[in-house]
Design brief:
- The complex is a heterodimer of chains A (about 400) and B (about 700).
- Chain A has a single domain, classed as Thiolase/Chalcone synthase (Peroxisomal Thiolase, Chain A, domain 1, 3-Layer(aba) Sandwich).
- In chain A, helix 3 (about 100-110) crosses helix 12 (about 360-375).
- Chain A is of the alpha+beta class and about 400 residues long.
- The longest helix of chain A has 21 residues, at about 180-200.
- Chain A is about 30% helix and about 25% strand.
- In chain A, helix 2 links the parallel strand 3 (about 60-65) and strand 4.
- In chain A, the strands form four sheets. In chain A, strands 1, 2, 3, 4, 5 and 10 form a six-stranded mixed sheet that branches. In chain A, strands 11, 12, 13, 14 and 15 form a five-stranded mixed sheet that branches.
- Chain A contains twelve helices and 15 strands.
- By secondary structure, chain B is of the alpha/beta class.
- Chain B folds into three domains: about 45-210, NAD(P)-binding Rossmann-like Domain (Rossmann fold, 3-Layer(aba) Sandwich); about 220-410, N-(1-d-carboxylethyl)-l-norvaline Dehydrogenase, domain 2 (Orthogonal Bundle), CATH 1.10.1040.50; about 415-690, 2-enoyl-CoA Hydratase, Chain A, domain 1, CATH 3.90.226.
- Chain B is about 45% helix and about 10% strand.
- Chain B is built from 29 helices and 20 strands.
- In chain B, the strands form four sheets. In chain B, strands 4-3-2-5-6-7-8-9 form an eight-stranded mixed sheet, with helices on both faces. A seven-stranded mixed sheet of chain B has the order 1-10-11-13-15-17-20, sandwiched between helices. A three-stranded mixed sheet of chain B has the order 16-18-19.
- In chain B, helix 2 (about 30-40) packs antiparallel against helix 9, helix 10 crosses helix 13 (about 265-285) and helix 15 (about 320-345) packs across helix 18.
- The radius of gyration of chain B is 26 Å and the shape is globular.
- Chain B starts with a strand and ends with a helix.
- The model of chain B has no long low-confidence stretch (mean pLDDT about 95).
- Classes of the chains: A alpha+beta (about 400), B alpha/beta (about 700).
- The interface of A and B includes residues 39 and 49 of A.
Chain lengths: ~400, ~700
């Protein structure tokens, strides 16, 4: 039985005003060689053009990224300039939750009445991540140099553990079986490739041609480069890096961007390619679990969100998890007593990669598109983030207040 | 009585017909006399005052006019506010490059710079006797009017022209002399005055190109250039495509790159001028011309349209066929509608309007030629498509009926005109590069003269819009880079046209004045029975440097017209590609060179079959033997040029070793085959093709 309250009654996501780049694996594409902030701004402009949204409609821009990029100091205004539209905005960052958090904050901008059309633009380049040099007089080495992606993945300063260790710890806590993890991984790859092969993602993932400094062709970003079809046998044969964790059952670093709009009710109708579709924000929550148990955080966040909204998993039409480790999905299924075959239908970050900032934005876009394809209903999107955090959000896709 | 296919553009300046120039053996206007009339006699010479002399227009025109009037002792006074950044001094390096250090210093020494406060003219000005004020101050009507009043009160009788690109003469109360960018070198001036004045005739006699237009808000150039800019802005508004990419597509489909041009001119000033023109046009004509918000913003900020170097574009945009068609509707649609207004208002002679687009706004084909090329029905459909995409534009006037006259000679002969006096005909070509339009029009002109019973013809430039003949328009070769048949078609079709000058007239005389005659145009004119030039003209066959193989019979026709002793000179001309002075080619390329008056007289005598003293150099129509193959050439480290030399040599041997009737196809096939080679594709033409068309 549903008794949900709408979190942001005045905010909407206009159907179709979204798009994402493919997520090529790190160091495999032209994205490894460019300023990702500039790329994201220009790509968003192009995607909005393809979706028939004049960029001049945008009043505000919320950008999200987790890895420093050239001229990051100049923040959202710089990215907006690269889009060709001088609007204000701000930068938001919460590790792998960034992509969802940015959408929620855009909605709060609309809800608060400060802007009627807010762009969400998330992006990251994990390739060749910058090295930060931090003078630390109290540190043994006096000066610490940290490679932003890998040194952070390998060391949570609050616990001293790596991301990988959290997966192993959580797998042991929930007594996860390696075979189930491999089966789930195999299924996730199948879901992804079935969707790719069907062409269903063509409306979401936009091929983008990247130019070099001379204006000549540098590369075409037209696939999630690096993702290969895997067999069950090959997954079984992989060596464990920690309990139930193999190279195949964890995600890989990638580069990319994703974007969507959040607007007021009337503007959503005006800008959407299908104005009859209504996409609302039902609720969102976050929580933090015990030290180094990150993979259980999403499940517990979902539990909390369902409690708050009065909804149940049975109410959910589409369920999508940002799953850097396959064990995340297995733990979620166990905690929520949910069949993991029914979720992540169109693919997930376990397979297509994890450029951090835009990962959950692409996840949301795919989830909303899937809900429209299926006729409308509740959409649950959730995931984990650095610091043993879980984040979850529910959207409602309807036509004129009724289920599609 | 002189009869013509259409009015010559020279006549629009009150300078008579081209045929009269030959008949009288002199040009219709003389600089020395006109300087006396405009600035006073030598012992009482007045000055030219340019106000706003440090601005882009003022400084450019100070150079252009200063370099021409210095020899006549006309002082140039550059008037501006104190503290204005030095625009004139910045011109000096360019002046040195163009004229050499000594002449540049002389020209600069003749420019007297004075400051004023906008209200009182400097005392020193009186000594300099201002006779002609060229006003180049900001586009603010009241300031301009006050400026004229000040000058008229101080110097009664002073002639005033405004360089304004927006205000009509009727608003300003002075004549208009509206120049085109780049102001140092662009020779075109749109002039608005009741009758062609001595100032206008003086500009012409100094080698500039005054073009009369009617008195309306914004002149032809600005309607076209601001119009295409606005079209690009509207496309941007509709699709988000960045300005830089829109620029590339406008360049591909039409020719100009308006946004780059704004940045190069200086976005601050250019944005304001474009906005100002469109603003006034919008007020007077309606929505079709209303400036977009981004232009309105940028006229204040002066922001460039292209991103800065550190943000060179990263994400590419491409149009598929349907999107390209939409793009054409967004860009050509409003241009066609605007052109219909220009024609409805009879803004000027059609050839002049057409030339303004090509000479001043980078149009690959003038707007009238473009419309003629696609036809009235398609033009009207294109405008209708535009109105569907941008409905408010339909509320502005649109005159499709003006295209009903497309079969009139004024439409059909934009680049080539013909005149005759019953005995001698003159074919004039007003385009500096030979293309398919010139070829078709030339054929029609030949047909017309023959129909009129004319057997003797002079073929020449138009003494107005074309100040040189630079050769073939290489953009006509683009399809031939991929299609050998297309190359063969172009070469053989153009060669057949050239042969008509030789075969279908009793006497044909090619006459070249101006700076130079090169490549395809030289090949065309050597087909005349006689070729006459002024002494200073430079001739050349630069094809080998591009590289291409000459396609209009340059590899055998001149060999057939001269004795074997001269063949090495022809080989050098073809295989090195350097320019030679016409006076040094007498007997093997030209038949006569002389001063302008001598050459004009010789042409007239030749055309009238009077006693001219020249012997006809006949074309040998059998195979030639003994073409030398061991010509000593300066080595080139350019692989393409070396290969072209070999192929041109083969072409010469093959086309000379057969009869005249077989030679044409021999040469055109060699030319076409080379066009699809990697050397041509990576040479100048291929590179330009890739930059402009492969985007």
């Amino acid at each position: 039985m549903t008794k949900e309250k709408i979190m942001f009654p005045k905010a909407r996501i206009p159907y179709g005003t979204w798009g994402s780049s493919y997520f090529p694996a790190w160091q495999t594409s032209a994205l490894a060689e460019i300023n990702i902030g500039q790329f994201a701004g220009e790509a968003m402009n192009k995607i909005m053009g393809m979706k028939k949204v004049p960029k001049t409609e945008l009043e505000y821009l919320v950008i999200g990224s987790t890895i420093p990029w050239h001229w990051k100091f100049w923040n959202a205004p710089m990215v907006a300039s690269c889009m060709g539209h001088r609007i204000p905005g701000f930068h938001l960052e919460q590790a792998c939750a960034t992509g969802l958090q940015a959408i929620i904050h855009a909605a709060s901008e609309v809800e608060g009445g400060s802007s009627d059309v807010v762009g969400v633009l998330t992006f990251d380049r994990t390739s060749d991540s910058p090295v930060g040099v931090f003078p630390e007089r109290r540190a043994y080495r006096r000066t610490e140099a940290i490679a932003d992606v890998w040194d952070n993945f390998g060391f949570d300063p609050a616990t001293g553990n790596s991301m990988l260790i959290t997966a192993g710890l959580a797998a042991r806590k929930y007594k996860i079986d390696r075979e189930e993890v491999d089966d789930l991984t195999f299924h996730r790859y199948k879901q992804y490739f079935d969707t790719i092969d069907s062409g269903w993602l063509d409306n979401i993932l936009i091929p983008l041609e990247v130019l070099n400094i001379q204006g000549r062709f540098l590369g075409l970003i037209n696939e999630d480069t690096g993702v290969r079809r895997l067999s069950r046998a090959s997954l079984r044969a992989q060596r464990e890096l920690d309990t139930c964790i193999t190279p195949g059952s964890q995600t890989h670093a990638a580069d990319g961007m994703a974007t969507l709009l959040v607007t007021g009710i009337e503007k959503a109708k005006e800008l959407s390619t299908r104005p009859e579709i209504d996409i609302q924000f039902v609720g969102k929550t976050e929580l933090r679990v015990g030290p180094s148990y990150m993979p259980e955080a999403p499940a517990l966040a979902v539990k909390k969100l369902l409690d708050r909204t009065g909804l149940s998993m049975d109410d959910m039409l589409v369920v999508k998890n940002h799953n850097p480790f396959a064990v995340n999905d297995v733990i979620f299924a166990k905690v929520m007593n949910y069949d993991w075959h029914k979720m992540n239908n169109t693919g997930s970050s376990l397979v297509y990669g994890h450029p951090q900032g835009p990962t959950l934005t692409r996840t949301v876009i795919e989830a909303l598109e899937e809900a429209v394809t299926l006729g409308g209903g509740y959409v649950l999107v959730f995931g984990c983030a650095a610091g043993d955090v879980g984040i979850a959000s529910i959207f409602k896709v309807t036509e004129g207040g009724k289920k599609l | 009585m002189i009869v013509s296919m259409r009015q010559s553009t020279l006549q629009t300046l009150g300078l008579g017909t081209v045929l009269e120039i030959f008949k009288k053996h002199q040009l219709p206007a003389n600089s020395s006399n006109l300087v006396d009339q405009v600035f006073g006699a030598n012992d009482n010479r007045g000055s030219l005052v340019i106000s706003g002399a440090n601005g882009i227009v003022g400084a450019g025109k100070a150079m252009q006019l200063g370099s021409r009037l210095e020899a006549f002792g006309v002082p140039i006074v550059g008037l501006d506010f104190p503290g204005t950044p030095d625009g004139i001094g910045n011109q000096f390096p360019g002046l040195v490059e163009a004229f050499g250090a000594e002449n540049a210093q002389k020209i600069m020494a003749n420019i007297i710079r004075l400051n004023y406060n906008g209200k009182n003219l400097p005392k020193e000005l009186k000594e300099l006797k201002p006779r002609f004020l060229l006003e180049a101050i900001p586009e603010i009507l009241e300031i301009k009017k006050a400026h004229y009043k000040l000058f008229r009160e101080s110097f009664p009788g002073v002639e005033i022209r405004s360089v304004t690109s927006g205000f009509p003469s009727s608003e300003l109360g002075v004549g208009i002399a509206h120049p085109a960018f780049p102001h140092e070198i662009n020779k075109v001036w749109e002039v608005v005055e009741p009758e062609p004045s001595n100032i206008t005739k003086l500009l012409w006699s100094l080698g500039l190109i005054p073009v009369p237009v009617s008195d309306h808000w914004s002149f032809v150039l600005d309607v076209l250039f601001c119009g295409i800019t606005l079209a690009g802005l509207r496309y941007h508004q509709a699709t988000n495509m960045p300005y830089w990419k829109i620029d590339k597509y406008i360049r591909k489909f039409i020719g100009p790159n308006p946004f780059r041009a704004h940045d190069v001119i200086g976005a601050k000033g250019a944005n304001f001028l474009t906005w100002s023109c469109l603003h006034h046009l919008g007020n007077n004509y309606g929505e079709l011309f209303i400036p977009t918000l981004d232009l309105t913003e940028r006229k204040e900020t002066g922001q460039d349209w292209y991103p800065p170097d550190h943000f060179r574009p990263m994400v590419n945009w491409r149009l598929d066929d349907d999107e390209s068609d939409d793009f054409l509707s967004w860009t050509l649609g409003p241009l066609f509608q605007m052109t219909s207004i220009l024609l409805h208002e009879q803004r000027g002679n059609l050839s002049n309007i057409n030339a303004i687009g090509e000479l001043c706004a980078q149009f690959r084909s003038g707007i009238i030629a473009t419309i003629r090329d696609i036809g009235a029905d398609s033009t009207i459909k294109r405008v209708a498509s535009y109105h569907k995409l941008h409905p408010v534009a339909a509320s502005t006037a649109w005159y499709p009926e003006v295209f009903e006259k497309m079969n009139d000679p004024e439409w059909q002969q934009l680049y080539v005109n013909a005149e005759h006096d019953g005995k001698v005909g003159v074919i004039t070509i007003s385009r500096e590069s030979y293309n398919h339009d010139v070829d078709s029009e030339l054929n029609r002109a030949i047909d017309w003269l023959k129909k009129e019973g004319i057997h003797n013809v002079i073929v020449t430039g138009d003494f107005h819009l074309a100040t040189q003949m630079v050769g073939a328009d290489t953009s006509d070769f683009f399809p031939a880079l991929e299609n050998v048949d297309e190359g063969d078609r172009v070469a053989s079709t153009w060669s057949l046209t050239a042969r008509r000058l030789h075969n279908e007239f009793k006497v044909s005389v090619g006459y070249i004045n101006g700076k130079r005659c090169m490549g395809g145009f030289l090949e065309l004119l050597i087909h005349c029975h006689y070729l006459v030039t002024t002494d200073e003209v430079k001739l050349g066959m630069p094809e080998v440097t591009l590289p291409v193989v000459p396609g209009m019979e340059g590899c055998h026709w001149p060999f057939r017209k001269t004795i074997p002793e001269n063949w090495p000179k022809l080989l050098k001309l073809l295989l090195v590609g350097n320019q030679v002075k016409a006076i040094d080619t007498t007997g093997w390329l030209c038949d006569y060179t002389g001063t302008q008056e001598e050459a004009l007289e010789k042409v007239w005598k030749l055309a009238n079959e009077e006693d001219h003293g020249l012997k006809l150099r006949k074309v040998v129509d059998t195979a030639l033997e003994g073409i030398p193959t061991d010509v000593q050439l300066p080595a080139s480290d350019n692989e393409g040029m070396e290969t072209a030399r070999k192929v041109i040599m083969e072409t010469i041997k093959d086309s000379c070793s057969v009869s005249l009737s077989e030679a044409l196809s021999k040469q055109s096939k060699h030319s076409a085959n080379f066009m699809i080679s990697k050397h041509c594709k990576t040479g100048t033409i291929g590179t330009v093709f890739n930059q402009v068309m492969n985007i």
